[in-house]
Amino acid sequence: MRITVIGAGSWGMALSKVLSDNGHDVLVYDNNSKIVEKINTMHICIQLNEYVPESIQATDQLNQALKHADILFFVVPTKVLRAVIDDVLPLLDTPKLMVNAAKGIEPKTFKRVSEVFAECFDAKQMKGFVSLSGPTHAEEVIRGLPTLITSASASEADAKYVQKILHNPHYFRVYSSTDLVAVELGGAIKNIFALASGILRGLGLGDNANAALMTRSLVEMGKIYEHFGASKDALMGLTGVGDLMVTCTSTHSRNYQAGYKIGKGKDLDETLNSMTMVVEGIRTTQAAYELIKQHQIEAPIIEALYDVLFNRVSPTIAYEQLLARTLKPE
């Protein structure tokens, strides 16, 4: 297949490697000409300092990238997604299958990425939509370490189509799902709790606290799933507990890293300025907080994290307040 990957960040390049290893003709688009040049001349993912197959080509010409293939992988932070879509729209002259590989929720609207795509593209421009999610660190995927991921779509045929394209029997196993709502929510919301996990580690609170955090995080995720009509069974899958575990326990996670710095005493601005990659959990925390307040959903961890990030409450005070909550059955 001829496939275009929009976004030459670490995850975009890792997915490009999987697709190339599977024999597909991959063209990567990025608006940074220096990154494009290094991919084409040095065959390297500069964010991870890892080599990629020479067959992967890159361009900074969006029109060329769109004409290359009928399948577009969008691998850009949700913060800039609408801006990227605005660039794509006037150049899109044939319908494409859209695949999103970023994990996030739009603040204010709490729209999932599939809803943003449906709002921006009409049926003549989008053949279908698929979301990729699961416990997948780019650092390991690009090295060919064993990884499992979920291909989700409201269309079972589209989910299975992308499943087949991406599956690599040596290191990249892909499952399919039609519960698009659950898959998108899980991939986004777990970033909130990865921030909280990093804060706990920064405070030096230990394994017991982190295990408790992840367990109670699943409860809060389940309440949000229920609100949006997603199956709570998905919490036990790759895009639920699987993604939560890897994001809350690995230093590869940028959300965990950001939380760790906050736990060590840095404020939010200082933390974000020190990060080299986008921390999706910040925006998702804001969106989730507004949602639970609007719909009166009990989610004390989300509330506590919001207070730490945006109301400058001390992390120590926040966790002490969580422990001091009224006792109740589990």
Radius of gyration: 20 Å
Q: What is the strand tally?
A: 10
The low-confidence runs, each spanning 5 or more residues with pLDDT under 50, are none
CATH homologous superfamily placement of the largest domain: NAD(P)-binding Rossmann-like Domain
Task: Tell me the CATH architecture of the largest domain.
Answer: 3-Layer(aba) Sandwich
- The CATH class of the largest domain is identified as Alpha Beta
The span between the termini is 50 Å
Structural class: alpha/beta
Helix/strand order, N-terminal first? EHEHEEEHEHEHEHEHEHHHHHHHH
Beta-strand share of residues: 5-15%
Helix content: 40-55%
Strand order of the largest sheet: 5-2-1-6-7-8-9-10
**Helical segment count:** 15
Mean pLDDT: 95
Anisotropy-based shape: globular
Sheet bearing the most strands, described?
Answer: 8 strands, mixed
How would you sum up this structure, described in words?
With 330 residues, this protein is of the alpha/beta class. The protein has 2 domains: 2-178, Rossmann fold, CATH 3.40.50; 181-323, N-(1-d-carboxylethyl)-l-norvaline Dehydrogenase, domain 2 (Orthogonal Bundle). The protein has 15 helices and 10 strands. α4 (81-88) links the parallel β6 and β7 (96-100).
Write a brief structural summary:
By secondary structure, the chain is α/β, with parallel strands linked by helices.
